[in-house]
Amino acid sequence: MELIPVIREKVDRLFEFLEERTGIVAEQNWTCCLSCGIAAMQKEHPGKPYVFYHAQDNETWYNPNRKILLVEFSDYSTAADFCNAALDIGIELDWSGRMSERIGLVVRQ
Predict the structure, then answer these.
(1) Which of 1, 39, 45, 95 has a Cα-to-Cα distance from 53 of 20 to 30 A?
(2) Once rounded to an integer, what is the mean pLDDT over residues 81-108?
(3) How far is CA 89 from the centre of its chain?
């Protein structure tokens, strides 16, 4: 069984859960890049907590050499909620806990 479809389904469930149950704005394949994604979140959802990955990160699903899908977040509390939900769903994380680093979701071993 290939890992990618299983992880992708879990990531979809994670983002849906965050949107529906926590009030966190959670977007997949959001804008073209990190800086545009942050600017768009701040413009379209001012003051709301958010998590997203952008189109360049979305290519992780198609590139067998990339093992980590990176996710941006608005603040530490949102990052903690995201990580707890990801772990509950069974997604392995790669993150130091530092605000200066994006959260990594392990999509390949």
Answers:
(1) 1
(2) 94
(3) 13
- In the chain, the amino acid numbered 88 is D
- What 3-state class would DSSP assign to 68? strand
By three-state DSSP, how is residue 39 classified?
helix
Query: How far apart are alpha carbons 53 and 76 in whole angstroms?
Result: 17
At 3 the pLDDT is 60
Mean predicted confidence (pLDDT) in 39-53: 97
Tokens of 56: 């360049």
Can you tell me the mean pLDDT for 23-51? 97
Bridge partners, residue 70, by sequence: 104
Q: In the chain, pLDDT over 70 holds for what percent of residues? A: 96
CA 88 remoteness from chain centre: 15
Beta bridge partners of 71: 103
| Residue given tokens 């050499």 in the structure block | 65
pLDDT at 1 over 50: no
Angle at alpha carbon of residue 61, lines to 52 and 59, rounded to 5°: 70
